[in-house]
Specification:
2 strands; single chain; 200 residues; two-stranded antiparallel sheet; mainly alpha
């Protein structure tokens, strides 16, 4: 099975058939898709300026989409290296029990669904790398009461998400499943109340 870098080379290779180049970009999302496969694909298509169903995409647009994906992946991989180093140090210092950020991180190892968007058409508009930088910054500071990506204050608890965890606070503005560790207990409780009001 080809890895991310091998697939990225195929996307860039002008000797490859256009269908293979598009297919290889889609396959990259099996290795790294911050919003989930479908939402990340929709995001990349809209940012690079081609329709998700377009089978004859301008190769320059495919490469632009890949560039954005690679930049975001570099941001996430750097975070994972720092995370692993921190955990090693904590274990060395006798802190064996992981915290809530660690629990969340285990479910997103490799970058799949780190900013999960259950509705593939509703996702942040900013570049993927910027979204991940904001999310990482939120994970590294004290919990807050709003979405770490867009600053939206309206979070609604959703159940039956096509992701793990299958329920949690979703930002009604940018569509991400907000990681629980970045929110205060009061913000989490408010998102649960908002769900009850929406369903009532």
């Amino acid at each position: 099975m080809a890895g991310f870098r091998s697939l990225a080379r195929q996307v860039r290779d002008p000797r490859c058939d256009l269908a293979l180049r598009r297919y290889s970009l889609r396959k990259c999302l099996e290795r790294f898709a911050p919003y989930g496969h479908r939402a990340t694909w929709d995001h990349l298509c809209s940012r690079a300026g081609f329709d998700p169903e377009d089978r004859s995409v301008d190769p320059a647009r495919l490469v632009a989409a890949l560039d954005e994906l690679e930049e975001a992946r570099a941001v996430w991989l750097a975070y994972e290296v720092e995370f692993a180093e921190r955990r090693r140090k904590e274990k060395h210092d006798g802190l064996r029990r992981p915290g809530s950020v660690d629990d969340w991180h285990r479910m997103t190892w490799g970058g799949f669904g780190v900013a999960w968007c259950d509705d593939p058409r509703v996702h942040p508009r900013e570049p993927l790398a910027e979204v991940l930088r904001r999310l990482i910054a939120a994970l590294e500071r004290e919990p807050g009461s709003s979405c770490p990506v867009c600053g939206g204050a309206r979070l609604v608890w959703r159940h039956d998400l096509d992701h793990e965890p299958s329920s949690g606070p979703v930002c009604t503005e940018c569509g991400i499943l907000v990681p629980r560790p970045v929110l205060t207990p009061a913000a989490l409780a408010e998102s649960r109340r908002a769900r009850l009001l929406v369903s009532a």
